[in-house]
Amino acid sequence: MTHHHTQTYWLEHAWLDTHVEPGVAVDTRDGRITAVHRDTPTPPPGAEVLRGLTLPGLANAHSHAFHRALRGTVQVGSGTFWTWREVMYATADRLTPETYHALARAVYAEMALAGITSVGEFHYVHHAPGGTPYADPNAMGEALIDAAAEAGIRITLLDTAYLSSAILNKHSGRPPTTHQLRFSDGSADAWAERCSVLKERDHARIGAAIHSVRAVPAEQLATVARWAEERRAPLHVHLSEQTAENDACREAHGCTPTQLLAEHGVLGPRTTGVHNTHLTDEDIALIGGSGTGTCMCPTTERDLADGIGPPAALQQAGSPLSLGSDSHAVIDLLEEARAMELNERLRTRTRGHWTAAALLRAASADGHAALGWDEAGTIETGALADLTTIALDSVRTAGPLPRLGAETAVFAATAADVRHTIVGGRHVVRDGAHALVPDVPQALAQAIRSLRA
Ligand SMILES: [Zn+2]
After folding, report:
1. Which of 61, 128, 169, 331 is the most exposed, fewest CB within 10 Å of its CB?
2. Alpha-carbon distance 386 to 15, whole Å?
3. Distance from residue 324's CA to the centre of ligand 1 (Å)
4. Cα 288 off chain centre by
């Protein structure tokens, strides 16, 4: 006998991709939406009531979970991306499968509280310090997959090839530094062999990543691209976040990082460039023309003084946009969404580059697509039953007409206004409280303190 899990949710206001619809009932069965009933002014009997504006679940397309341990500590003094990286490496040194599991579980629970239903984890801390593989060479990746399950969210583990510390010349990279030894598998072939053992689960998909053109020598880029191609898996790459990367690439290869990736078959519709900050017009045309996505991480980019990228031009050229909290300076996808628009306003001194609808699309449907969850990110029959409800009666959101709910959510709400998070038809956050991790602040504090001890 088969037991099916069915549940009806009544959405006081629903975001249906283009507009706010009042009074919508959503039937779910075994984690998927089976029917969407408009014109339902009152909750049907037995329905769970979601008061506020319910959006499709949010996708955090770029995360390094352990960077959460740096919050606050990296805001003392001055510096650049490169000085920040030294502090980040010192934290990476102390991770074990056990401590990383505890930290990631708490960080993913923080994400659920922020309305995030899927995370793309760009994962490169693979081996023990010094580079010795654990008994299970995927122990760290498995810890992250388990952590996501315990926090109630979906994960795409973007297992990351990280083989060198810098570009040496046309043919090879400089060896990893002491800190980076645990990131490296030695070669892209060894990376591929290890990753091939990873198994997908209901809540977990496996994708690939190239850390950057700094970290994977040119002649090994195609190995990673081929691995992703064979599996039809997402492939992510940090791209031109820093001008120093562009300079080193030009010197060794006589071209930009984007051109190098294009030459080695890395670009394409399943590929996402993360940051895409310092690009030439030709780079923008290559990225857009190949359908390669762009993941913007505006709160990290401003935190690390990276610069402002050209997402409007990229989108116009054909690159779908997604959003990530990356270094977790804050975890708030609504803030990421408005920051992309507000950066562009500061740069151009004009308003209205993206509508709230377009920003929500980046925060949900297009973010999910970048992570290989094409069936999430919209409230319609057949989609995954992943929902995020934003309060419209909080101190930040009260006042505007409900039909302006999307504008209110994107431009005024914060993660603190997330009232419900539903993943696969299951209530993970109810009335602002996590249903699976009872005390998220305590879990974060404990996990971070254990890394300092
Ligand atoms: Zn990153």
Report:
1. 169
2. 13
3. 9
4. 20
Query: In this structure, which residues have their CB less than 5 angstroms from ion ligand 1?
Result: 326
Question: DSSP secondary-structure letter at 327?
Answer: T
CA-angle at 322, arms to 316 and 328, nearest 5°: 140
Residue 105, number of CB atoms within 10 A of its CB: 25
Cα of 335 to ligand 1 centre, how many Å?
17
- Residue 392: partners with Cβ closer than 8 Å, 6 or more residues away: 13, 52, 53, 398, 400, 402, 405, 408
Mean pLDDT of all residues in 58-67: 98
Nearest to 406 by CA among 449, 453, 340, 359: 359
CA distance 34 to 416: 30
Residues contacting residue 357 through CB under 8 Å, at least 6 positions apart: 17, 18, 406
Residue 183 has pLDDT above 70, yes or no: yes
Is 0.70 topped by the overall pTM? yes
Collapsed DSSP state (helix, strand, coil) of residue 35? strand
63 C-alpha to ligand 1 centroid (Å):
7
Res 162 pLDDT > 90:
yes
Q: How far, in Å, from the CA of 407 to the mean position of ligand 1?
A: 28
| Phi and psi torsions of 54, nearest 5° | -95, 125
- Residues with a known catalytic role: 275, 326
Residue whose token pair is 């895409």: 276
Residue closest to 104 by CA, chosen among 136, 143, 73: 143
Backbone conformation region of residue 293, classed left if phi is above 0, alpha if psi is from -120 to 50, else beta? beta
Q: Which residue has the tokens 């580079």?
A: 131
Task: Note whether 110 and 161 are within 8 A (CB).
Answer: no
The tokens for 242 are 């820093």
Higher pLDDT, 357 or 4: 357
- The rounded distance, in Å, linking the Cα atoms of 277 and 311 is 8
The residues with which 430 forms a beta bridge, in sequence order, are 433
Distance 249 CA to ligand 1 centre (A): 19
Please give the DSSP secondary-structure letter assigned to residue 139: H
What is the whole-number distance in angstroms between the Cα of residue 336 and the centre of ligand 1? 14
Rounded Cα–Cα distance for residues 304 and 1 (Å): 55
Q: Is the pLDDT at 9 greater than 90, yes or no? A: yes
Question: What letters, b where the CB count within 10 A reaches 16 and e where it falls short, cover 26-37?
Answer: bbbeebbbeebe
